[in-house]
């Protein structure tokens, strides 16, 4: 057993996640300030297409994390087999761009260049899966290295060399390569065993179950392709990308629960830590959502003044991201406690009755409705502006996300004894509303919208940090749980210095 520490790994993940947001925004600013709306849309389309073929990698990584967390040595087998599978993914990608390029009127050479991302992402994901079940905190460290490395690369290839989308692809590829080295160092103890064909047989036999949970993700990501093919334009995708960039701050709150999944795999039904972890999740997710709302307009302006008109779209995406982040925390808790795969004699029927099957089934229904509604709506709105079409897209996205979150939460309450401190939750909510309402008024009166990003961004970050520190200080003095959290952080720091 690795003795996974949920709070320790979660805090590392959260802190590095916030740093990654800052570094990620810097890279995004480099990209959005240099690329046209069409080029940014192309960049997002490549990301969507790559994600479609990457899902087959889950046939290996899905089981690898569960096995490594339970002490089984499948690391080397997973690494080698993942390399082979990546070849098939690359071929599928080439077939897809053959049909997409003419429809989207995008230079096929640029889409072809995106293929170099596939093998490095396969290697990155399988090493991440190994470390997730072994040393989950390593993913946080690797993530921040990835974010930091890509900044100078992006500045050189995109800003100085003006290589546009291709420059962004090169930057990301090299950043992945550096991250792979770090992940390999962390995972080296799990890569020493011989290749075991028994693992391959199991993965192949149960590939339907590991691929099944990926279907919802594939369906949800079809929205970019549907939008491109129906509208024939990709400017709306640039609005969507800008909105997602702002909303990504909310996602980082989920990092506090990153280690819950491997801990449940390791500890079985022992889940005393769940309630405390969920309260800490809300401690972070409430203010991060408030920050996203309050600073939505200046944040879009910072990305590029042309995206300031996407404020309404971004607000819808932020709310959707809030529900999605909660779902992304609830889902692995439920699947992490599932033990059907521990029994080697489990039959097909046993798996179909498990949460490994039932939860993805609900998601498939949800995202099928989403894609159908999006397609029909875009067809009806085909003569409308790209801004109106993208606003509809964001609204449908939000509406279809809510049922899943509600369903997962109810299922969580049925399967676990969850005791949330409502008084603390109210304190977090009231403090966030009070602090960031004031910050909204102050920002509206005193923040100057200067076109120079070097003048505007420092001022914007100053207002954000004032709000963050005010929230932390107030909650520290009015909430005992917050005091305990920061005491634990200081204790951990002092023990390691």
Notes on the structure:
By secondary structure, this protein is mainly α. It has one domain. About 80% of the residues lie in helices and about 0% in strands. The protein contains 22 helices and no strands. Helix 1 (about 5-35) runs parallel beside helix 7 and helix 3 packs antiparallel against helix 4 (about 75-105). The longest helix has 30 residues, at about 75-105. The model has no long low-confidence stretch (mean pLDDT about 85).
In short:
The chain is mainly α. The protein has helices at residues 6-34, 37-54, 58-69, 75-104, 108-113, 117-132, 137-160, 164-187, 197-205, 207-211, 214-231, 235-251, 260-267, 274-294, 296-303, 311-336, 348-352, 355-380, 386-415, 422-446, 453-478, 480-495.
SS class: mainly alpha
Counting copies of identical and different chains, the oligomeric state is single chain
Q: How large a portion of the residues is in β-strands, by DSSP E?
A: under 5%
Order of helices and strands: HHHHHHHHHHHHHHHHHHHHHH
Number of helices: 22
Mean pLDDT: 84
Number of domains: 1
Main sheet specs: none
How does the overall form come out from the CA principal axes? globular
Q: Rounded to an integer, what's the Rg over CA atoms?
A: 22 Å
End-to-end Cα distance: 26 Å
> Helicity level, as a percent range?
over 70%
* Low-pLDDT stretches: none
* Number of E-state strands: 0
């Amino acid at each position: 057993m690795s003795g996974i520490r949920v709070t320790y790994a979660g805090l590392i993940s959260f802190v590095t996640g916030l740093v990654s947001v800052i570094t990620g925004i810097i890279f995004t600013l480099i990209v959005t300030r240099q690329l046209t709306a069409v080029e940014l849309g192309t960049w997002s389309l490549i990301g969507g297409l790559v994600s479609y073929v990457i899902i087959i990698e889950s046939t290996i990584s899905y089981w690898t994390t569960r096995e490594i967390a339970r002490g089984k040595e499948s690391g080397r087998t997973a690494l080698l087999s993942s390399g082979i599978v990546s070849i098939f993914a690359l071929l599928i990608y080439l077939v897809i761009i053959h049909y997409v390029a003419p429809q989207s009127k995008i230079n096929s050479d640029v889409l072809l260049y995106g293929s170099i991302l596939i093998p490095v992402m396969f290697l990155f994901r399988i090493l991440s899966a190994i470390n997730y079940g072994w040393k989950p905190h390593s993913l946080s460290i690797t993530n921040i290295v990835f974010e930091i490395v890509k900044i100078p690369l992006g500045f050189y290839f995109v800003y100085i060399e003006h290589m546009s989308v291709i420059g962004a692809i090169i930057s990301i590829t090299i950043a992945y390569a550096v991250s792979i080295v770090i992940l390999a160092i962390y995972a080296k103890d799990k890569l020493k065993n011989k290749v075991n064909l028994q693992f391959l047989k199991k993965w192949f036999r149960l590939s339907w179950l590991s691929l099944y949970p990926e279907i919802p993700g594939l369906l949800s990501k079809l929205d970019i392709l549907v939008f491109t093919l129906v509208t024939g334009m990709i400017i709306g995708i640039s609005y969507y990308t800008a909105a997602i960039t702002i909303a990504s701050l909310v996602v980082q709150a989920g990092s506090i629960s990153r280690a819950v999944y491997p801990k449940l795999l390791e500890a079985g039904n022992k889940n005393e830590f769940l309630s405390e972890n969920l309260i800490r999740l809300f401690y972070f997710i409430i203010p991060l959502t408030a920050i996203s709302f309050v600073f939505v307009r200046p944040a879009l302006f910072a990305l590029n003044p042309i995206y300031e008109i996407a404020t309404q779209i971004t607000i819808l995406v932020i709310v959707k991201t809030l529900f999605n982040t909660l779902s992304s925390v609830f889902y692995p808790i439920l699947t992490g406690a599932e033990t059907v795969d521990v029994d080697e004699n489990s039959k097909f029927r046993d798996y179909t009755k498990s949460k490994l099957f039932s939860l993805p089934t609900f998601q498939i229904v949800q995202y099928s409705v989403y894609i159908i509604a999006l397609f029909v709506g875009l067809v009806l709105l085909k003569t409308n502006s790209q801004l109106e079409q993208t606003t509809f897209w964001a609204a449908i996205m939000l509406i279809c996300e809510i049922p899943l979150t509600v369903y997962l939460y109810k299922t969580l309450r049925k399967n676990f004894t969850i005791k949330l401190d409502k008084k603390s939750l109210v304190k977090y909510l009231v403090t966030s509303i009070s602090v960031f309402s004031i910050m909204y008024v102050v920002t509206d009166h005193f923040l100057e919208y200067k076109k120079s990003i070097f003048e505007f961004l420092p001022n914007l970050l100053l207002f954000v940090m004032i709000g963050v520190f005010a929230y932390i200080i107030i909650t520290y003095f009015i909430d005992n749980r917050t005091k305990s959290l920061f005491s634990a952080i200081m204790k951990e720091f002092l023990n390691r210095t």
